[in-house]
Amino acid sequence: MTRDSNSQNKTSTAQAGRNCRNNRGIGMAELVIVVAIVGIVSAFAVVRVRTSRSALRVQNSIRQLASYMEKARIDAVRRHATTSVIFTDTRTYSVSMDFNNGGNASTRTFTFQDDVRLASSELPNVTFNWRGRTLTSGASCVTTFSVSDSVGNGLSVDVSGSGDVTVENQQPSLPNVVYSNNVNSSDGIDSRAVVSGTGTSDNTPCMDLSGGGVAADSGPPSCNIQVSSSSISIKKNGGATGSVVVSMSNPSLVVATAPSNLTVSPTSKSVSNSGSSFSIVSKNTLRGPFNVTFTSQCGSSITVKVNVTN
């Protein structure tokens, strides 16, 4: 009886030991793995939240700017006067209009939200006349510029010659209506009445294209840098590639500097008086004028204006 009791006690003790080993809980290795997975997921979530907040700041800044442009245009028509939206730097713009509907115009200054600034090289200057049209030198055209942040979020704004303000080229498409001039005498319509015009919006950009195909140079004779064209036009988002031939009076290393939305290839190259070609392509949908600067190792530099269009 005693022998059987001892045997049962040993069996119970062994079973209890096995149960303790099976119920020992989570080990250090498992805990480390779980913490690592949680950390990775949290890091991705934080990055996504920051990116979304950056994009919202760009959108809100553009929304406020477009709103004041529309208000300035309406005020110009209402008062039969001129109003304006003028950028003083890459983050600040001044609006001149009647803010209080009192009949007298005043000027207020507004600033983009944090980390938001103009991406294009030229400061926009938009003036509306009493008809709500923009006052641009030369002809009726579209003023285009881009706004972005350091992360890469960006939007393009178009102000047409007729005064319409659109974001990301969301212009209304006009229906293609076919008019017939075959009018019968019983229709009660004067067949001499003719409606002239076009069925498309005026998308001519207000960009300075005068430097297209015109060579330029800079620097002293011993370190003179030349470009085949001081202004070129390319299509957005890699739609077309432009090229510039750079030459030096004496052989020198030339380095190209471009904004984040443009890619210049090669970024640097040894250039002689025979010239070397640099290609320029747009990486995204930002439009407007942008500057690409070529700097030689001997100290001279020259800037080429790159007009990015649709």
Feature tags:
24% helix; five-stranded mixed β-sheet; Immunoglobulin-like; 2 domains; alpha+beta; 31% strand; 310 residues; minor pseudopilin epsh fold
Task: Describe what you observe in this structure.
The protein has 2 helices and 18 strands. The longest helix is centred in the N-terminal third of the chain and has 52 residues, at 28-79. The mean pLDDT is 81. The N and C termini lie far apart (99 Å). The protein folds into 2 domains: 41-167, minor pseudopilin epsh domain (minor pseudopilin epsh fold); 216-309, Immunoglobulin-like, CATH 2.60.40.3450. With 310 residues, it is an alpha+beta fold.
Give the topology string: H per helix, E per strand: HHEEEEEEEEEEEEEEEEEE
Number of domains: 2
How large a portion of the residues is in β-strands, by DSSP E? 25-35%
CATH topology of the largest domain: minor pseudopilin epsh fold
Identify the CATH homologous superfamily of the largest domain. minor pseudopilin epsh domain
Total helical elements: 2
In CATH, the architecture of the largest domain is 3-Layer(bab) Sandwich
Mean pLDDT: 81
The helix fraction, in percent, is 10-25%
Structural class: alpha+beta
| Low-pLDDT sequence parts | none
CATH class of the largest domain: Alpha Beta
Number of beta strands: 18
Distance between the termini: 99 Å
Radius of gyration: 33 Å
User: Strand order, biggest sheet?
Assistant: 9-10-12-16-14
Shape: flat
Q: What characterizes the major β-sheet? A: 5 strands, antiparallel
